[in-house]
Amino acid sequence: MSKPKVIVTRKWPIEVEAQLKSLYDVQLNESDTPMTADELKHALLTADALLPTVTDLITADILNIEGKRTKIIGNFGVGYNNIDINAAKSQGLVVTNTPHVLTDCTADIAMLLLLMSARRASEGERLLRNRQWTGWRPTHMLGQKVTGKTLGLIGFGRIAQAMAKKAHYGFGMKILFYAPSQPAQSIIDDLQATRCETVEELLIEANFVSLHCPGGDATRHLINEQRLKLMRPSAHLINTARGDVVDSKALIKALKEGWIAGAGLDVFEGEPNIDPDFLELDNVTLLPHLGSATEETRIAMGNRVLENIAAFFAGEEPGDRVA
Ligand code: DGY
Q: Is the CB of 77 under 6 A from ligand 1?
């Protein structure tokens, strides 16, 4: 029997690509350049499985192409707002993602951004690199103490809970969260966490606010001008979720006018094109979507996709099916 044809849209860790080569008739992307909409359509016509990632926009127009050969889309990423899920469902396509394996590394980056923002780490390093440091002095570059402060998490899924654990047990932080559904009482008890009834209540209370909700229409600009104005002037906003959860223009205004003290961002509206005003601000820490970027995690994400498509081709239900 011939091997299923699989198309991978970007370069993957070498170990996982080797596995793909041994198991499938695979088309890899050696140049690592993003595929165009036409190339993605062609992939759907010619492959049994398409393996895109979170930066590939798989729109309804692409998914509705007539004469598709593809039956499964194995997304490399836990977020799948890059795929029009309703269109995929109506086309009878199976879609999978890669949960669990990136939880800790993404929570680590959220904690890193929190610490960097609170302690002005990027600003300090820039000062050194620009050879502008004139020496220690009692009032130089004072930031905010992290230990013992209140962390508010918007969204309380796996990554938020992992961050809460690190913050509570590592830094003695008090945990608040806002989530549409009620988590298990044992999780709340373990973290001595408090559930807020509204986003507003959390924003007013927290010293640090970290975003952990999915992207998409339901959460677009959840953090807007009105809500940023509720935060404390000494508070910091951390975003490792999706860029469009925050209204960038409103955040820039908040950072310029001192409604909040700082922000730490790993994700951006319209990334990789960043609003140039962010680059002019000293009180924002910027990372290029590094949440899951460790060797261990990216290999594990690739393996997760492999497990999902292997199950599908064996006629079984893939473990991480989202459509
Ligand atoms: C995801 O998986 O959704 C992240 O944004 C990239 O790891």
A: yes
